[in-house]
Amino acid sequence: MIVLDGVTPPRGGTGCLHSVPWYTARLGGSLTELTVSRRDLTLSEILARSIGRTAEAHAQTCELSHPRTPQATVALARWSADAVEYLVLSDSALLLQGPDGTVTPVLDDRLDRLPRSALATEALVDATLRNKEGGFFTAAADPSVADRAVTGTVPRAEVRALAALTDGATRWTEKFHEGDWRALFEVVAKEGARSLVDRVRELETADREERAFLRRGKTHDDATVVHVEL
User: Fold this and answer.
1) Is the Cβ–Cβ distance between 27 and 72 less than 8 Å?
2) Which InterPro entries does the entry mention (predicted)?
């Protein structure tokens, strides 16, 4: 299972000739290949290699040191007969459902723990927090950020199903507080991913004027949900 959420580029440019979709397509392609072909590598090692490969593909034409070089959040899961491995980098989420219905979220909450004052402007975030110690990390051009990801392994018998979501979909729980992670998982499992996204869109539209929940955030954000039963 692989879910990537490309980071919206700033109006001022990224120092790169390529788009965020170009970046995510290549990163995702490499992740797909390596998670299958290199079972001997950990998910962190696979992410590091994939970031490196993608960087090499445009290192000669683009300024990869630019803080807004194309980048993405990452949620990965891989399973065998014995274990489920997971990796989360930045604000996408991975939910693990146990045999008893309990849902355990795997989150990289570094961005959420930053004070609002530190996020006042894009320029301030780029200069002091983005892919920096004390800030938060995304998959961009530096393979070493893979070591910053939230990772782990659980026995296969303890996971009945998984869901990976971008932050546009987790808004149902994290911003609008319509239900906890278990309730969100039940919506996806019983009604489908489309139903969750539709619910989020309705809430976003209702909050467009008052901004009681969205505040300074964009009205609509990319929302992707992948659900797998093991």
Assistant:
1) yes
2) PPM-type_phosphatase-like_dom
Q: Is 116 helix (H, G, I), strand (E, B) or coil?
A: helix
d(CA 22, CA 26): 6
With H, G, I as helix, E, B as strand and everything else as coil, classify residue 5.
strand
Helix (H, G, I), strand (E, B) or coil at 90: coil
CATH number of the domain enclosing 212: 3.60.40.10
Total domains in the chain come to 1
Distances (CA, A) of 112 to 53, 90, 167, 226: 30, 10, 12, 23
Burial of 79 (0-12, 13-18, 19+ CB in 10 A): middle
Query: Would the CA dihedral through 167, 169, 172, 173 be positive or negative?
Result: negative
Residue 76: domain span: 2-229
| Structure-token match 């026995």, residue found | 155
Instruction: Return the number of other C-beta atoms located less than 10 Å from residue 101's C-beta.
Output: 12
pTM for the full predicted model: 0.94
Alpha carbon distance 67, 90 (integer Å): 15
